[in-house]
Write a structure and sequence with these properties.
heterodimer; A: mainly beta; Rossmann fold; Neuraminidase; 6-stranded mixed beta sheet; about 45% strand; B: alpha+beta
């Protein structure tokens, strides 16, 4: 076994040097749902650090389905039901109204947030409750309220309390880079550094319970797979095979990691059992097989292979003979990095249409109808990751020469961007639901 | 049906691989098994590094050529191509003979790709490029244990721009003496 060069500088704590991501809406829908979100009243002393109503507005507008009424146009500022006059909101052509108030919780440092959601046209209350937490949790409470509003109005579960992982690289001196694995709210707020290194970090992936992350780190000078408990920072090196160890992805039940190893020659797909460390070889082909992802039922793996000359997407049932591989894409010059949506029919992937058009874009292939929808129009799009409610896809692209994270709705109508104040940001991984 | 198609394309691929091997055995991408030193494919003459300098103690022409060749440690590749360029063959031969003549010398072949295409594929492409040079070294007398291969994919670009000039500088294998 070779000796390890420990030139990597590892920091497992959150640092001030994290990238701040600030959301920008770049494209919205034509007819967004009008909603009035009245500033929540605050009964305590001093000024609250968070504007809960504004957090809800930002959430709802980011996903593009909603447009919030400007505060300056409001005719009244109710904070609870008995102050609401539906007429005030009907004349402003609003469909929904959210009001709320924040109080000190009796006898504690906590605050309690009461909110109520109304349907203006039907003049009825749709939802309302009191959420209690610390002042530091006001942002979480705001996202929680957004989840309720979104689900009440659209019927789809909200993903506003989810988080993202991503990689940041920054040049610190000529030829010297620093790499960070960071975690943030889905909108880029409250970024935290999970790992920092002078050597590359790649391919972050959430465990299905949202408690752990798997990734590739070159900290020993070679690409090796690690898992890390997010809360405790405790790490475990999962692989130390010769050559490439990459692309870790958790099985839907969390018991296994699919991965790519080139220990037997060329990169092939393997599955490692995390409880008994047993390694199962899935593909066996002299060309490149990589980018595994699990089908929603956990029985098959989708992967990319250039066995016919250019990258195409294939699917293989676990335990099947290695020649029993089904090819899923035929109509692209290169199709890569694929993953099924929860429906098991629509396949999100990176597509380069022809050799002549050098653009890499995020597309969805319906494997039943073979219909392809291309969602993006930039040229270096990669690493698509789907929100747990299936409504948005976050991906990495280049803007003004820098790596940024963009998101697009599954129908392509809505886009937003999380530009970074520093460094190149890439490889977003959208978390599962945490509860 | 799909199954049959795949078997067919696999056979086609195998035939293609054999043809490629026949055409340019030294640059094939097939993996060495690790244990052997590539002796079975030694179609090229054994290391011919001229060992003696001439009487006056000056370097021979051949030694000068070898020294110059060893100064080139970065080798560039065409887009989506894993084989090194024909014009680098002679320089790489000198590198291989240098390893053969100095069994204690160790090198690391660091493979890189440009940013187009996905990161994982580029990681694999970088390894494929480095392995091409690794195999050429072994065929020309280097020992497998002298050479370590690592791919950085697109993670460590040499140039930053989104243009062919930068991309061509990033598609490379660096020979790093350890």
């Amino acid at each position: 076994m070779r000796t390890l060069l420990t030139s990597a500088l590892l920091v497992l704590v959150s640092l001030g040097a994290r990238a701040e991501l600030n959301i920008q809406i770049t494209q919205g829908v034509d007819n967004p749902i009008p909603i009035a979100v009245v500033p929540f009243s605050w009964q305590g002393s001093g000024v609250l650090s968070e504007d809960v109503a504004q957090i809800v507005i930002n959430d709802l507008e980011q996903v593009g389905e909603f447009r919030a009424l400007s505060r300056s146009n409001m005719l009244s500022m109710p904070s609870e039901e008995n102050q609401v006059f539906f007429r005030d909101w009907r004349v402003l052509a609003q469909d929904y109204l959210l009001v709320g108030k924040i109080d000190r919780a009796p006898g504690s440092q906590l605050v309690q947030v009461q909110y109520e959601l109304f349907d203006i046209n039907r003049e009825m209350k749709l939802a309302g409750e009191i959420l209690t937490g610390s002042v530091a949790q006001l942002r979480d409470i705001g996202h929680e309220i957004s989840n309720v509003v979104f689900e009440q109005v659209t019927g789809i579960r909200g993903a506003f309390t989810t988080q993202i992982l991503y990689i940041v690289s920054e040049d610190i001196a000529p030829g010297e880079q620093i790499f960070r694995l960071e975690k943030a709210d889905y909108d880029g707020a409250r970024a935290q550094v999970l790992l920092e290194s002078r050597e590359p970090i790649m391919s972050p992936s959430w465990s299905p319970d949202g408690q752990q992350v798997a990734y590739v780190s070159f900290e020993t000078d070679l690409p090796r797979i690690y898992t890390q408990n997010i809360a405790t920072g405790q790490r475990r090196q999962i692989t130390n095979y010769p050559n490439i160890n990459s692309s870790p992805v958790w099985s839907p039940d969390g018991s296994k990691l699919a991965m790519v190893l080139s220990k037997d020659g060329s990169p092939d797909i393997y599955v490692q059992d995390l409880t008994n460390n047993q390694l199962l070889r899935v593909t066996n082909h002299p060309q490149i097989d990589t980018e595994p992802s699990w089908t929603p039922d956990g029985n098959s793996l989708v992967f990319m292979s250039d066995r016919t000359g250019q990258p195409q997407i294939y699917q293989m049932e676990l335990g099947a003979a290695s020649y029993n591989v089904e090819r899923l894409t035929y109509d692209c010059f290169q199709c890569m990095k694929a993953k099924f949506l929860p429906d098991g029919v629509n396949l999100v992937h990176v597509r380069r249409e022809t050799r002549q058009s050098p653009n890499y874009q995020i597309s969805i292939l319906n494997v039943d109808t073979l219909r392809v929808i291309t969602l993006t129009d930039t040229s270096l799009d990669e690493s698509p990751s789907v929100a747990p409610n299936g409504s948005m896809i976050m991906y990495a692209t280049k803007f003004a020469g820098r790596g940024v994270l963009d998101a697009v709705s599954i129908d392509g109508r809505v886009k937003f961007r999380l530009p970074s104040s520093r460094g190149d940001v890439r490889e977003p991984a959208w978390s599962p639901y945490f509860n | 049906m799909g199954k049959q198609r795949n078997q067919f394309s696999k056979i086609g691929l195998l035939a293609f691989t054999l043809l490629t091997l026949a055409a340019c055995g030294a640059t094939s991408e097939t993996e060495d098994t690790g244990a052997d030193d590539g002796g079975q494919v030694a179609s090229t003459p054994p290391p011919a590094t001229s060992s003696a300098s001439n009487d006056s103690g000056q370097l021979t022409q051949e030694q000068i050529r070898a020294q110059n060749a060893l100064r080139q440690t970065v080798f560039y590749f065409d887009f989506d191509v894993a084989e090194f360029k024909p014009e680098d063959r002679q320089t790489l031969t000198y590198h291989a003979r240098d390893l053969a003549a100095n069994p204690n010398k160790r090198v690391r072949l660091e493979g890189h790709a440009d940013e187009r295409g996905t990161r994982e594929y580029n990681l694999a492409l970088g390894e494929r490029r480095a392995n091409g040079i690794l195999n050429y070294f072994i065929v020309n007398g280097a020992s497998r244990s002298q050479v370590e291969v690592v791919s950085y994919g697109e993670e460590r670009p040499a140039a930053r721009g989104q243009n062919e000039n930068s991309y061509s500088q990033n598609r490379r294998v660096e020979v790093v003496t350890r």
